[in-house]
């Protein structure tokens, strides 16, 4: 019978593995609904370890939205570590949900959220453990519909063979529409089998069903065209956009794990979308337009969430949180509200801007000031113009030394390496910058124990961005520049000892690049890597570059392409890109012009302040920027906390 | 000179409460760190007026005594908290129990009796109940007899810096066998020594002396903790506090 718990069979296995708590469920605010009470059963997967997947906001939102429906239930499943996977195979127990340990294969829909492409091998492992046929075409009507979501779903072509569909854009409303379609099809007695169900799903706004689109290739290996194979599915698939975030105050009751997770805090999304126009940033391109939650909406989510979780820290989440039109007032009023309650408030990394130091001061008014993070991204002024994240060296040094002067002892600076047009000199400027930051910081703060950490990784060009045509830097280039930077930082020992450097080598970025801009042919590489034991590719102790390059060589050579063709090759203006039939709303011409302007080092301004519809998103999707200020303010309330 | 927080120091502890709680069902897979996190959050949700340490990263005043290992269930875990307002212990118990996940159940809460000494001093032994599925009681009985007849039974356990040898025999104060056909039950009183001898080490010791190898992982439940007396019994560690309270009934505000 479907929906039975596997727990009695799993329990003896849990006794033999590392950190078993991650598999037992029962998190605060988790939900278990009776199987037979609902028409549609969703398993929601984050294809990485529980500690990474549990805090994921997207999955938490959909979990609540679906469970609020009387006709649906949603349970969660995460990638299991190899120790448990081995025992499960021996014992013949399948991939399970943590909520009530039901078999994933019993569910109607398996939704998988891809924040990064490095989760693809974990998808294959989960499908195999679940006993779901790996290839979508081999599944019958009893198999779950495998749906990919998240940012990587804007180019799902590398996993097109393994997923039944992909959802582009915001999921809140799309999951409801999918539920309606599955429910109707089941209640009608499953007319037309699985193919009919997928055809109906393909007509849902934002849902892409790869099997209904055929890809053809030219003799040079490039795509010549993508055509639909049925005329009742759309020629291009658009994205979903949720308007009015105040109407979607999710998660209302965030999940609190017993196990340790990567974020020991509650997050509130203060706005969605970003129009700063940083050219490397896929998130900023595909989530347009900006939609702010109002100050009062944010205030009530924080209040409710803290009461529901007992967390001590709240992160104000978005792509560029200091840009919220009411952020100054929000910071002051939240600091007032939570004074004396041991509640911490924080912003994620911010743009380099003096105002952001003021904000961070205000948010930390009641507590400790330790680390502050800025993201200049590019080492030289020239490269920062190329990526459209302009800040002068003087402003950067002034801002950071202000932070030190205000009692912040550690500043972390995020950079990327391997950006288009970048030279060794652009990267070496990071060392000069860090040195001057420490010098100015010591002077401004009067202390010697301040620290600056340079955090740097290789840039991976992403679909639906102006850099989608760019040649990705090779792993050798990245590693060479990182080594040179390290040497430059260590050259002046008196200053260098105050500077830390954290970096990732260039190899995983190359594979991420293959998976990001790959087409359907890359699916064979993923499958081969998984068959040879590839899992948890986002973890350095599990990632094997050699396994990936060998698999790529073996699978791609017969097709006349190779790893370099997908990564370090610059694309022509009119090359058909694998994701051209997937519409983020951005005009391809606008993206090309922006790419050309990038090469010329020209900036583009933010449409929130200089009205402009050039990128094409608002006219295409019928959306508008939604920003304040609203003129409202937070009323004092009795916050949760000791002494209350 | 390190920066100090502005404002007055945190309010002092005016009362100490001692709690017994459980680790039941799937929650037996929680580690001590998992439990500590869950308890701290639950204390906030339950609005218990916790006392905090001073400084920039204030910590709630909680002391844990002898946590059960990951994978072992328990009916008798103990902790002590400091609060800034006098509280009714039963109200704290009910509120905290409601704020914790099912399986971590707060079963007792008493006010620390004045002059009764520390909680840690009242605990030096555990009573463990081990279920050995697939093992016959008679088989277990002879293994336990062989074990008890030894002066010393050394087993290797995983330590932070590689394997460590411990004497499992010396730590065992008493052991009795019961159970049904197909599932033997071992009740064993184990002294809390360093390095710790855990239920798994006792099972390993039985394998060493009598080649007893249960076909599936042993399920362990800690049934009691307390001070081991000369008769081999383990005393209730909250007994002295309960006794002190009957002599001194004060006015108590609710949480």
From TrEMBL, chain A:
Gene3D superfamilies: Cobalamin-binding domain, tm_1862 like domain. InterPro entries: CHP03960_rSAM, Elp3/MiaA/NifB-like_rSAM, Radical_SAM_N2, rSAM, rSAM_horseshoe, rSAM_sf. One of its GO terms (molecular function) is catalytic activity. Residues 260-502 form the Radical SAM core domain. NCBIfam families: rSAM_fuse_unch. PANTHER family: RADICAL SAM DOMAIN PROTEIN (PTHR42731:SF1), SLL1084 PROTEIN (PTHR42731). This is Radical SAM family uncharacterized protein. The lineage of its organism: Bacteria, Bacillati, Actinomycetota, Actinomycetes, Geodermatophilales.
UniProtKB/TrEMBL annotation, chain B:
Residues 16-199 form the DUF2344 domain. The lineage of its organism: Bacteria, Bacillati, Actinomycetota, Actinomycetes, Geodermatophilales. It comes from Trujillonella endophytica. Pfam families: DUF2344. This is Radical SAM-linked protein. Residues 220-233, 242-255 have a biased composition (Basic and acidic residues). It comes from the Bacteria. InterPro entries: DUF2344. Residues 217-255 are annotated as: Disordered.
